[in-house]
Amino acid sequence: MSMLQRPMPVKTPTTAPFWDALAQHRVVIQYSPSSGSYVFYPRVRAPRTLADDLEWREISGMGTVYSFTVARRPVGPHFADAVPQLLAIVEWDEGPRVTTELVNVEPGDITVGMRVRPVFCDYPEHDVTMLRYEPADPR
Questions:
Q1: What is the predicted pLDDT for the residue at 4?
Q2: Band (138; pLDDT cuts 50, 70, 90)
Q3: β-bridge partners, 90
Q4: N or C: which end of the chain has fewer CB within 10 A?
Q5: Shortest CA distance to 108 belongs to which of 90, 131, 86?
Q6: Phi-psi group of 121: left, alpha or beta (phi > 0 → left; psi -120 to 50 → alpha; rest → beta)
Q7: Which domain holds residue 35?
Q8: What is the pLDDT of residues 60-91, one digit of tens each?
Q9: Do 65 and 55 share a domain, yes or no?
């Protein structure tokens, strides 16, 4: 199956600033002044304080691999031609973590704590840009 048949994210009013920034090859996430911390995934109220004070701020997108797995079996039928999939949790320098896919790296070269940088994968036919990660210091 091709990428055209794979499920794609759906932009909502709450998530639109995140997806719109990715389309511009920028990473923006929410910041809560009441808790003094960045927030991810997008939401309407700040976690812990429930304050209505979330603001969108640009971040570098740089981070470290917090955890990863090499999926040698497809995670679903739409991904049968995409194995192995290098699935990871990246911790942004600003604090929150994001689930993503690693690209431009061999499975054996991935380590927890590895520095990574964002890769913006545009899919104009779906009007979406996906956020992936690659090693910050390629060998």
A1: 44
A2: low
A3: 65, 98
A4: C
A5: 86
A6: beta
A7: 10-59
A8: 999 999 999 999 998 888 888 888 999 999 99
A9: no
For residue range 6-62, list pLDDT tens digits in order: 889 999 999 999 999 999 999 999 999 999 999 999 999 999 899 999 999 999 999
Strands across the sheet containing 128-135: 97-101, 85-92, 63-71, 115-123, 128-135
Are the beta carbons of 29 and 41 closer than 8 angstroms? no
The answer to whether residues 45 and 68 belong to one domain is: no
> In this structure, are strands 115-123 and 97-101 parallel, antiparallel, or unpaired?
unpaired
Instruction: Give, in degrees to the nearest 5, the angle at Cα 43 between 32 and 6.
Output: 135
Report how far residue 73's alpha carbon sits from residue 89's, in angstroms, rounded to the nearest whole number: 19
Tokens at residue 9, please? 């994210």
CA 131-20-81 angle, to 5 degrees, is 35
Q: Provide the pLDDT confidence category of residue 122 given band limits of 50, 70 and 90.
A: very high
